[in-house]
Specification:
By secondary structure, this protein is of the alpha/beta class. It has 24 helices and 16 strands. The longest helix is centred in the first third of the chain and has 35 residues. The protein binds arginine. Arginine (ARG) binds next to helix 13 and strand 11. InterPro entries: aa-tRNA-synth_I_CS, Arg-tRNA-ligase, Arg-tRNA-synth_N, Arg-tRNA-synth_N_sf, ArgRS_core, DALR_anticod-bd, Rossmann-like_a/b/a_fold, tRNAsynth_Ia_anticodon-bd. Pfam families: Arg_tRNA_synt_N, DALR_1, tRNA-synt_1d.
Length: 671
């Protein structure tokens, strides 16, 4: 046998030996998997395995403890920041997390379940982990009662300023009572440093909102996107993030071919004299009619798109003229609603679309589909592919969003991308994110959200339309809101009391406030019925109720003749009063502010915040009904002022003001 043969046979043997080992390991693995499935890992047969499993459990456990320690360390460093309110839920998660790890060292990743208590008798928060942990023990063949576990957890909770008292109740609930000292210290930061959220890691967030289309109607769907998107931006800005508010207007579609050619043919001197196209919708309809009926025109329109997209100066000029008309109309709406946006429409991405198409092509991602170039996300999930290039070589909405996501990640260095559109575009964004992951653009450290919302219905529960069946013009809608708000104010006789200027401010505050709030207070996933009558009611969770409630709270300090300066002084010399049951109840609602913000940050559903601000208003009424702040005698002279309560009322007003501000509502001093 030659040297080569010998070597070959040696490696042959090695290989078959390795193969045997693999087979053996596979068998063991299979056995193990089977055992795990049957939840009866019989390690007693194999002491080696048993050792490994124990070792593994210990390691995992140490890892959990370490992770929690790191989290609590980094948190306690920031939470010692005495200039901000703290998130109670988060603190409880941490201290109970640590206590549970110590109490149940034999369980890895034991569940830490902390909820708000729905009955003050049972404390303010509850830890409900013991029941679940008892079940886990049961599966492991150990019988431990939830109550025993709960007691053990309580023994292991290290003392914290937040916790006044812990109580084991019922089958094994742990009731947590928040301490007044903690409450007082937290609420006092409102006077020393203003209403501030707990610290968040600053992120670069790109929010795509509003995004109407040039020359087409800006409809209620765009209004929803504007309102919901604006609130999300306001929230994230308040949390200290760096937010880029992008208005991705549709300014580059094929409709421009027909619009421009129609403009050129109807107003040949458009380059020197501004064409009368202020009614752009009518102009759009005219050109669309020609486009549909006249084959020749259609051809010229298609050629027009090509000219525009290749940058022909005359076409660009015409395009700008048309865009400007729409732009001005949009701006009127944004100004009225006080929404700030950066316009960056589809046209911005023209060259970037060329680039991304080239990249996808080079990466071998594109498939030919009857002349179209398509790209799949996950082929197995039943969705259709993206059309990246049409058969005529043009790009699509899909292509433009591939460019937006790349631009926002690569150029804007976004840590978090948010797209606010109607729910009908859900699949589009689902596929977009899949593709972005597939090409390595979207990585795990970047958060992306499509924020969908349901359709707006009329009171007849059908699609929101005017009586004649046309889409409702937003400007008309806002005008009607103004008219109805004024009627409401007059009905209450406010026109007799307020100055014309005050009346106008109240009218605008109510009109725009109620339109925004009606939208925001509904779970955005559902459709909602647009009803001026409902939104202008002054009872229940409406903007009108809240704006009135807020003004009333603000006026309390005024009755005591306290101005801002005086309140600052009082805040230095007195403490917020928390003794009365209703005072403490109100205070605890205010203390929830950080966790309410956190909730909205997680699921981007603003209705949580609406429910919260409503809770503040109703709890305040309860407090005010049983606790006097300013006492006057029969002649109206002040006989007693309760400084601590005025401070509590003022703290309430400030938290409420912050919530209203995030919701885009503008309270006025008098209404
Ligand atoms: N990047 C985006 N796709 N943003 C949303 C655009 C919305 C689109 N213009 C429409 O009216 O439906």
């Amino acid at each position: 046998m030659g040297l080569i043969d010998e070597t070959v046979s040696f490696y042959d043997k090695e290989a078959s030996c390795a193969e045997d080992q693999i087979k053996c390991l596979k068998k063991q693995l299979l056995q193990l998997q089977q055992n795990i499935k049957n939840k009866t890992v019989d390690t007693s047969q194999n002491p080696e395995l048993q050792k490994l499993v124990t070792e593994n459990t210990k390691l995992k456990h140490r890892l959990t403890i370490l992770k929690r320690a790191i989290a609590s360390l980094s948190h306690s460093q920031t939470s010692r920041d005495s200039t901000r309110m703290q998130n109670i839920q988060e603190i409880l998660d941490e201290i109970f997390g640590a206590a549970i790890s110590s109490a149940c060292p034999d369980i890895t990743d034991a569940p830490v379940v902390i909820t708000l208590s729905n009955n003050a008798k049972f404390g303010d928060y509850q830890c409900n982990s013991a029941m679940q942990i008892s079940n886990i023990y049961k599966q492991l063949g150990k019988k431990v009662s939830p109550r025993d576990i709960a007691n053990k957890i309580v023994e292991n909770v290290s003392p914290h300023e937040l916790v006044d008292k812990l109580e084991v109740a019922g089958p094994g609930f742990i009731n947590v009572f928040v301490s007044k000292a903690f409450g007082l210290r937290n609420l006092s930061t409102i006077f020393t440093h203003g209403v501030r959220p707990p610290p968040y890691k600053k992120l670069r967030v790109v929010v795509d909102l509003s995004s109407p289309n040039i020359a087409k109607e800006m409809h209620v769907g765009h209004l929803r996107s504007t309102i919901i998107g604006d609130t999300i931006c306001r929230l994230l800005e308040f949390l200290g993030h760096d937010v880029l508010r992008i208005n991705h207007i549709g300014d580059w579609g094929t409709q421009f071919g027909m619009l421009i050619v129609h403009l050129q043919e109807k107003f040949p001197d458009y380059l020197s004299k501004a064409p009368p196209i202020s009614d752009l919708q009518a102009f759009y309809k005219e050109s669309k009619k020609r486009f549909d009926e006249d084959e020749d025109f259609k051809k010229r329109a298609y050629a027009g798109v090509v000219k525009l997209q290749s940058g022909d100066p005359n076409y660009i000029k015409a395009w700008q003229l048309i865009c400007d008309v729409s732009r001005k109309e949009f701006q009127v709406i944004y100004d009225r609603l006080d929404v700030k946006l950066i316009e960056r429409g589809e046209s911005f991405y023209q060259s970037r679309m060329n680039d991304i198409v080239k990249e996808l092509e080079a990466g071998g991602y594109l498939e030919d589909d009857e002349g179209r170039k398509v790209m799949w996300g996950d082929k197995n999930d039943g969705n259709i592919p993206f059309t990246v290039v049409k058969s005529d070589g043009g790009y699509t909405y899909d292509t433009s969003d591939l460019a937006t996501i790349k631009q926002r990640i690569v150029e804007e260095k976004g840590d978090w991308l948010i797209y606010v559109t109607d729910a009908g575009q859900g699949t589009h964004f689902y596929i977009l994110f899949q593709i972005a992951r597939k090409i390595g653009l979207l990585t795990d450290n970047i958060r992306v959200d499509h924020v969908p919302f349901g359709v707006v219905l009329g009171e007849d529960k059908k699609k929101f339309k005017t009586r004649s069946g046309d889409t409702v013009r937003l400007i008309d809608l806002l005008e009607e809101g103004l008219k109805r708000a004024l009627d409401k104010l007059k009905e209450k006789g406010r026109d007799q009391v307020l100055t014309p200027e005050e009346l106008k401010q109240a009218q605008e505050s109510i009109a725009y406030g109620c339109i925004k709030y009606a939208d925001l207070s509904h779970n955005r996933h559902h459709e909602y019925v647009f009803s001026f009558d409902k939104m202008l009611e002054d009872k229940g969770n409406t903007a009108v109720y809240l704006l009135y409630a807020y003004t009333r709270i603000r006026s309390i300090a005024r009755t005591a003749n306290f101005d801002d300066k005086k309140i600052e002084d009082v805040a230095k010399s007195h403490t917020i009063s928390l003794d009365h049951e209703k005072e403490w109840k109100l205070a605890k609602v205010l203390l929830k502010f950080p966790e309410e913000l956190d909730k909205v940050t997680k699921d981007l559903c603003p209705h949580h915040l609406c429910e919260y601000v409503y809770e503040i208003a109703t709890t305040f009424t309860e407090f005010y009904d049983s606790c006097y702040c300013v006492e006057k005698d029969s002649s109206g002279d002040i006989v007693k002022v309760n400084h601590g309560r005025i401070l509590l009322a003022e703290a309430t007003a400030r938290v409420m003001a912050k919530c209203l501000d995030i919701l885009g509502l503008k309270p006025v001093a008098k209404m």
